[in-house]
Design brief:
This protein is α+β, with helices and mostly antiparallel strands and 252 residues long. It has one domain. Helices cover 40% and strands 21% of the residues. It contains six helices and nine strands. It has a five-stranded antiparallel sheet, sandwiched between helices. Strands 6-7 form a two-stranded antiparallel sheet. A two-stranded parallel ribbon has the order 8-9. A hairpin with a 4-residue loop joins strand 6 and strand 7. The longest helix is centred in the N-terminal third of the chain and has 45 residues. The chain is globular and about 85 Å long. The N and C termini lie far apart (87 Å).
């Protein structure tokens, strides 16, 4: 007996079948493209690390993925350190970073000897040019992901990038623009007078107009994006403190 095409039951079953078929097709396509997607994500991360450390000879904007990977493998050494600032042998930095991102509490770094942190070191031959660390934190609407690079003196900012976030275009999303990122270059994370860590602070408004002293520790904020700016300040503070044991050894 044929089902009445005008009945509610027919409509429901038809919609259910369509949904099942579409879900299957979407899952199939997603699975087919997973390897390519993961490769593109890994490539984008490497590109951001290279941008953060400010290569002496920047990668050509038209460089192929193969060329970019060659530059990365030649210039960047990946290591893992523990919570006491010691190098850990036999562990892979990218896997440690992935585990941090996938953890339920990734915006608060672990601590102690059992903690693991990825560290990316920019070298020209045997010369260390910069150290680069991942930074993760909460903005207004989303989790922010980026990299923070420090000069070999372990006191001066070399560069910053943000490669993933969901902040408001034209407001919080300005954190990924060069005008904002360039503010960090040359800033200090070290208070010379007090001999302690002083992570860079995103200041509301213009630093030159609102900060009378210690200007080396502040950068201009983003108009209309106070919560995002506060999030950036907090994440830089948290992650620099997590790596401070390692950087304190460099300063000594």
């Amino acid at each position: 007996m044929a089902m009445d095409k005008n009945s509610t039951k027919y409509t429901f079953i038809f919609a259910l079948i369509v949904c099942v078929i579409c879900s299957f097709l979407l899952s199939f396509v997603s699975e087919m493209l997973r390897d390519k997607r993961e490769l593109n994500e890994a490539l984008d991360i490497k590109k951001n690390i290279l941008k953060a450390v400010s290569l002496r000879e920047p990668v050509d904007a038209k460089a192929t993925p193969e060329e970019l990977l060659k530059v990365y493998s030649d210039k960047i050494e990946e290591i893992v350190i523990d919570g006491e600032g010691n190098k850990v042998e036999g562990e892979v930095a990218t896997e440690v970073e992935r585990a941090i991102k996938e953890s339920q509490n990734n915006i608060v770094p672990a601590s102690g000897k059992d903690a693991r942190f990825p560290l990316y070191i920019y070298k020209e031959g045997d010369e260390v040019v910069a150290y680069c660390i991942p930074i993760i934190g909460k903005g207004l609407w989303s989790t922010l992901y980026g990299y923070f690079a420090i000069e070999p003196d372990a006191k001066t900012v070399r560069g910053v990038t943000f490669y993933k976030h969901g902040e408001t275009p034209g407001l919080g999303a300005e954190i990924e623009k060069d005008w904002f990122l360039d503010n960090y270059k040359g800033k200090s994370i070290w208070d010379v007078d007090k001999s302690n860590l002083f992570p860079v602070i995103v200041k509301k408004g213009k630093v030159i107009e609102s900060v009378q002293s210690e200007k080396d520790h502040y950068v201009d904020g983003i108009s209309g994006a106070t919560m995002t700016s506060n999030g950036v300040t907090a994440m830089v503070d948290v992650w620099l403190n997590a790596y401070e044991v390692f950087f304190s050894k460099i300063r000594k």
